[in-house]
Amino acid sequence: MRDGIRANGANHYPATPYTAYRGLPGSNIQALHTYFTHGVSAVDEPVARTQLAFAFNQRWLIKGWNLLFLKGEPPPITPLAEDKVARGRYLVDTLGHCGLCYTPCNLVAVLALLMLALSRRTRAR
Q1: Cα atoms in the 13 Å half-sphere on the side-chain side of 96
Q2: Transmembrane segments in this chain: where (predicted)?
Q3: Does the N-terminal or the C-terminal CB of the chain have fewer CB atoms within 10 Å?
Q4: Residue pLDDT, tens place only, 10-54
Q5: What is the DSSP string of 28-77?
Q6: In a domain, 89, yes or no
């Protein structure tokens, strides 16, 4: 969940906000897992097969993405109940992961997002 690796060892795509989830304490990850496995009813619908254009359909390339964007150790977790600013930062940056979409990114990320948007546009025609 924090490192972008699925249970079977495959990489998650960066659309899964694992770079933000690095700040989740283990107890919150366990609470989320419990909620989604026991508190939310399953929907009996087939899952559509992912159809990404090349090179986005190559999960092994995510290792390069992680080298660029998955930096160091997870941030230290501060006692949130005592510090309102830290709690707000945690809610926005970690659980809400707002900064992943709403902050400037470097040229590599911009080009990757542009290529993804163009591949979706071409496929929609």
Answers
A1: 11
A2: 94-118
A3: C
A4: 888 877 888 888 888 888 889 988 998 999 998 899 988 878 888
A5: HHHHHHHIIIIIS-----PPPPP-PPTTTT-GGGHHHHHHHH--SSPPPP
A6: yes
